Amino acid sequence: MRQMEKHNLKAGRLAVKKTLVKSCKCHGVSGSCQQKTCWKRATDLHTIGEHLTSKFARARLLMVYNSPNDSSASLNKVRSSDLVYTEESPSFCDPNPHLRTVGTSGRQCNVRNATHTQGNCDRLCCGRGVAIRHEAVEYKCDCKFVWCCKVVCDDCITHQWVSTCK
């Protein structure tokens, strides 16, 4: 396991190295470029994250054997820039009492969110579909401060559509 972690750390460093960008600065009288100094710098975190996300999507399953020599042989078959893993990630879609996860059925989601955003029904509901219901929600409104030391509010009702995963 430790060997896999070292490998993935190296793959992460290589990902940062691959996304380095060249920056230059000119030196000279009144902006003339008599001498130019260039260096490589890390790009923005979003670009590095996108690169690592694509690597994550293509990560390779690493077979672990009883003998230490066998597992290192398996690790030698992947490129140093590849990410590796030893077991499948559990599904967050269905309840799993061993992991104490409740799944996404009945969970509130947002049908209007863009697909890649958090809380989006398409991502959250795992293809099971969405139930949409009309709901009346009571809330405090038109609050007024009454001298001394009291706030009095009316009870108001708003109507909204609530979407939940089936």
Automatic annotation (TrEMBL):
Pfam families cross-referenced by the UniProt entry: wnt (PF00110)
Main location: secreted
Subcellular locations according to the entry: Secreted, Extracellular space, Extracellular matrix
InterPro entries named among the record's database cross-references: Wnt, Wnt_C, Wnt_CS
SMART domains: WNT1
First and last residue of the signal peptide: none
UniProt keyword terms in alphabetical order: Developmental protein, Disulfide bond, Extracellular matrix, Glycoprotein, Lipoprotein, Secreted, Signal, Wnt signaling pathway
Biological processes annotated in GO: canonical Wnt signaling pathway; cell fate specification; interneuron migration; motor neuron migration; neuroblast migration; neuron differentiation; positive regulation of cell projection organization; positive regulation of motor neuron migration
Annotated GO CC locations: extracellular space
Molecular functions per Gene Ontology: cytokine activity; frizzled binding
Known function: Ligand for members of the frizzled family of seven transmembrane receptors.
Similarity section: Belongs to the Wnt family.
Protein name (record): Protein Wnt
UniProt source species: Plectus sambesii
